[in-house]
Amino acid sequence: MIGARVxxxxxxxxxxxxxxxxxxxxTQSTINRMExxxxxxxxxxxxNRVAYALGVSIDSLARVKINVNGHAFTQxxxxxxxxxxxxxxxxxxQVKQIVDWLSNS
Length: 105
Description:
Order of helices and strands: HHHHHEEHH
Strand order of the largest sheet: 1-2
Distance between the termini: 35 Å
Largest sheet: 2 strands, antiparallel
Oligomer: single chain
Shape: elongated
């Protein structure tokens, strides 16, 4: 998932794997491995440098959007919505009141 986001961000910037490797002080082979899902061989420090070179956070690389009924959600958002859906009507109402209160704060 992170690798796919690295590729998307790299392509958005219009730079090659080699250029990203140079900017993140790693090798083109490492960038290739990341983009192709072989992250178990890539250290967290390298992922951090790649994210910095792309101008994004590691968190943003890890957030994959899931399309549900035409709306894009992160994994965390989907998990929240599924939990919300499982609540009783009374608890859903309480959550809605909290969200309204937070929105107006």
